[in-house]
Amino acid sequence: MFADLSGFTAISEKLDPEEVTGFINACFEKLESIILVHGGIVDAYLGDCIKAVFGFTPAVEDPTLHAVKAAVEIRAALAEFNRDNSLPSPLDVHVGINTGVVIPVVMSGAATHDFSVMGDAVRLAARLEDASDKGQIYVGPETYEHTKGEFEYRALPPLVLEANRAPVPVYELVAAAPQHRITRTSERRQATVVFADIIGVEDASEHFESEAFARFTQECFETLGAAVTEHGGLVDKYMGDGMMAVFGVPNAIENAPRQAVNAAIEIRQRLGRFVVERG
Questions:
Q1: Which residues contact 217 (CB under 8 A, 6 or more apart)?
Q2: pLDDT tens-place string over residues 21-43
Q3: Distances in Å between the alpha carbon of 174 and those of 3, 88, 148, 161?
Q4: 241/8 Cα distance (integer angstroms)
Q5: Cα separation of 273 and 268, whole Å?
Q6: Residues contacting residue 91 through CB under 8 Å, at least 6 positions apart
Q7: At what angle do helices 256-277 and 210-230 cross, to 10 degrees?
């Protein structure tokens, strides 16, 4: 999902920089909470755009449906944000969503390590967002086929991506069945957060070819992520050589702090066994 916010430039021309920063932070915090509730991961902030991915949290079923629901809630939440704050001009959002195979990567730079996804499915989602206008939610063909029973769509002219490829069908979301919408009693819920940093990944990379190392790290994180989900937690995001997990949201569990500690112990034990098994 790519959700691009518009209106910050107009606001910045009428408010002090500190006020603009406050509004931006409050707005993105609200929208990120919606993504988290629906089991998504914020992949990146690209200027005024949020890039989010759904399907990397095993505890959440039907990530495609949750992605579309999150987009609907983001649009509604932004309208509410405009009403609740005395903005000199309203903010708006337009969204592109696509479903397909992606390539998970850990991108390393001189000072940062970031988890991200790439591939044709990601590029199409970005193009859908770019083609949409304020307030619109565009989806690709696989997203449409998977959620057309839950939402009403309007077919649009196909999108031409490359000269030598067939145009891609595009659909605009126009309505959602009210009985399927998620209702939250509060935007704030108590949660326990675990950060697990894997030491030695960089050294291990020297002993693998790039593709083999990618498989090695993916198997490692899948092993550790299973320890999180088995204790009722949710892997929120992968960050370089580590991961962030939350307990207590989006699904309430009994004694989240204790489950988080148990998961941390299990992560340590499974990592030890993983290293021994892989030699």
A1: 106, 201
A2: 888 888 998 999 999 889 898 88
A3: 17, 28, 11, 24
A4: 34
A5: 9
A6: 5, 6, 7, 8, 11, 27, 78, 81, 82
A7: 150
Distance of CA 155 to the CA centre of its chain: 26
The encoded tokens of residue 82 equal 């405009």
C-alpha 223/C-alpha 221 separation (Å) is: 5
Helix axes 17-37, 63-84, angle to 10 degrees: 150
Taking alpha carbons only, the member of 273, 111, 263, 109 closest to residue 194 is 263
Q: C-alpha angle 91/67/96, rounded to 5°?
A: 55
- Report the predicted TM-score, pTM, of the whole model to 2 decimal places: 0.62
Query: 96 - beta bridge partners?
Result: 2, 138
φ and ψ at 241, to 5 degrees? Answer: -95, 15
Type of residue at 24: I
Mean pLDDT highest for which of 82-96, 143-157, 198-212? 143-157
